[in-house]
Design a protein that fits this description.
Helices cover about 30% and strands about 30% of the residues. It is elongated, with a radius of gyration of 21 Å. It is an alpha/beta fold. It contains nine helices and 15 strands. It has three domains: about 90 residues, Periplasmic binding protein-like II (D-Maltodextrin-Binding Protein, domain 2, 3-Layer(aba) Sandwich); about 80 residues, Periplasmic binding protein-like II (D-Maltodextrin-Binding Protein, domain 2), CATH 3.40.190.10; about 110 residues, Alpha-Beta Plaits, CATH 3.30.70.260. The longest helix has 13 residues.
Length: about 280
């Protein structure tokens, strides 16, 4: 299987791809849009981070899931462990700078407080910081990244597990190109176009996006379609629509797969919402 990721080899996305699709061939991409381009062209599937327990939703990926013809096949939770990684021969007490993605640096504040001589320097990518340090043989600089980056670039881990919060997880999606085949879910309803994908066996979780009119009670009516059927929502979030100021899309995860209650709820939602897109039906982890 060919899996596209955003970022360099050795990134957390690379590690998630190896865990979700063992033996896959990983294709690094500079931009998220390129990842989705590859999926839509059918040249690869993709593994994308969608949400971090500390930093929240990856907004660009949430937007792309709505706007592109892709579907979610699986989810995976990766424990995020940050490590100080340097070139062989470098010692921790010789470091003067540590490079990494700004989000990663922000998650390692305690380390920098304990090592005030080391400057935190923002870089474009966690694994990219390690690649830069090793390729340029920087002897006073390290990168902060996962163990996969150390393996990928033959770096040395000087300090392991430096993240402040040991309950730091990132949720990843495995996505594929939307099939042109229409399955039975949603046939003849307002959501038929957005449910054209194969549903994995044992699927028990659904991700959707929808928009309601700015009228009194519109959101209440849309959420009531789940409450009426005792369907539990595990997530609800709103995001602004690009190009349409002060209009919002709601993202919802609910804990049902392809069953009658879920199908009826989606049909009902299609009657009260301006649009509904089923982003994926998959097994919860």
């Amino acid at each position: 299987m060919r899996i596209a990721i955003q970022g360099e080899l050795g990134s957390f996305s690379h590690e998630a791809a190896r865990r979700m699709a063992p033996g896959c061939s990983v294709i690094p991409c500079a931009r998220s849009a390129e990842v989705f381009d590859r999926v839509e062209s059918g040249s690869a599937a993709a593994v994308i981070p969608i949400e971090n327990t500390l930093a929240g939703t990856v907004s660009e990926h949430a937007d792309l899931l709505v706007n592109r013809d892709v579907f979610i096949e699986a989810e995976f939770l990766l424990r995020i462990v940050h490590n100080v990684i340097a070139a062989p021969g470098v010692k921790l007490n010789s470091l003067r700078r540590a490079l990494s993605h700004p989000v990663a640096l922000d998650q390692c504040r305690d380390f920098f407080r304990a090592h005030p001589r080391i400057e935190a320097v923002p870089f474009y990518d966690t694994a990219g910081s390690v690649k830069h340090v090793i390729e340029n043989k920087l002897m006073d600089t390290a990168g902060i990244a996962g163990k996969q980056a150390a393996r990928e670039y033959s770096g040395k881990i000087l300090a392991a597990g430096i993240e402040d919060d040991k309950n730091n997880f990132t949720r990843f999606f495995l996505i594929r190109k939307t099939s042109t085949h229409k399955n039975k879910r949603g046939e003849g309803s307002a959501v038929a176009k957005s449910t054209a994908f194969p549903i994995p066996r044992g699927a028990n979780k659904t991700s959707i996006a929808f928009k309601v009119a700015n009228t009194p009670g519109a959101l209440f009516k849309s959420l009531s379609v789940f409450a009426l059927r005792d369907i539990s929502l595990s997530k609800i979030e709103s995001r602004p629509m690009r190009g349409r100021p002060w209009e919002y899309v709601f993202y919802v995860d609910f804990l049902r797969g392809d069953d009658e209650a879920a199908r009826n709820a989606l049909r009902h939602l299609g009657e009260v919402a301006e649009f509904v897109k089923v982003l994926g039906v998959y097994r919860a982890v």
